Amino acid sequence: MAHGQVVGTHSHAQGQLLYPAAGALATTTERGTWLAPANRITWTPPGFEHSHRAFGETEIRRIDLPTRFCRFLPARPSVFAVTPLLREALLALSDGHPRGPGPRHRLRGLIIDELTGAPPQELYLPEPADDRLRVVTSLLHADPGSSATLRELGRTAGASERVLSRLFQDELGVSFRQWRSMLRVQHALVLLGDGHSVTTISSRLGWANPTSFIEAFVAVVGETPGRYQAELRRTGAP
């Protein structure tokens, strides 16, 4: 998929695993957006309406899972880390080479075993239904590095800082600060995949300094930006 390319809203009768071997893939539902960068895999259950968007030139490996396998995986979209063994199984099952039912079944079983043994990597950004919140989140999506306060954004949304703060907690389950930080981290993952430095990313996305960026990144991703970028290089991603 080319950078910015979108696959419109759809669903599948089977479960689907999408592994971006290069680039990054966002999966969006009415509940929010899950981001799978190049060392993660996104899972979408059967019948779950969703759309996709590519960030960077994105090479995607697709694995369709019959419903009998799906009961072992979460009932909502999720993102998982890709272990070396899982990566090799994903590549083998999606390399286009003909395989009999037995080998395909065993490879799928191996993939399920690896996924069920790994905790989800919740690179997830919830999206609001309230019109006032949607104004605020749309402004931040357009400019994730914006330093505007919730009070300033509220003037455009036609709501007070107090009302918006309560809506973030009640509807999305996070504070305004947490939501903006998660949005920035999702953008940071893409920029790290493109080879940008920690200093450049922290400045571009509105963090006060690189240390603040690193702390926010670790809180969401579970590892430092430097380690994440090193893993991308080690697995052969850009």
TrEMBL record:
Stored InterPro entries: Homeodomain-like_sf, HTH_AraC, RmlC-like_jellyroll, RmlC_Cupin_sf
Record-linked SUPFAM superfamilies: Homeodomain-like (SSF46689), RmlC-like cupins (SSF51182)
Presence of the UniProt keyword ATP-binding in the record: no
Superkingdom of this protein's organism: Bacteria
Span of the signal peptide: none
GO MF, one example: DNA-binding transcription factor activity
CDD domains in UniProt: cupin_NimR-like_N
PROSITE patterns hit by this protein: HTH_ARAC_FAMILY_2 (PS01124)
Domain (HTH araC/xylS-type): residue spans on this chain: 134-231
Keywords assigned: DNA-binding, Transcription, Transcription regulation
Protein name according to UniProt: AraC-type DNA-binding protein
Lineage of the species this protein comes from: Bacteria, Bacillati, Actinomycetota, Actinomycetes, Pseudonocardiales
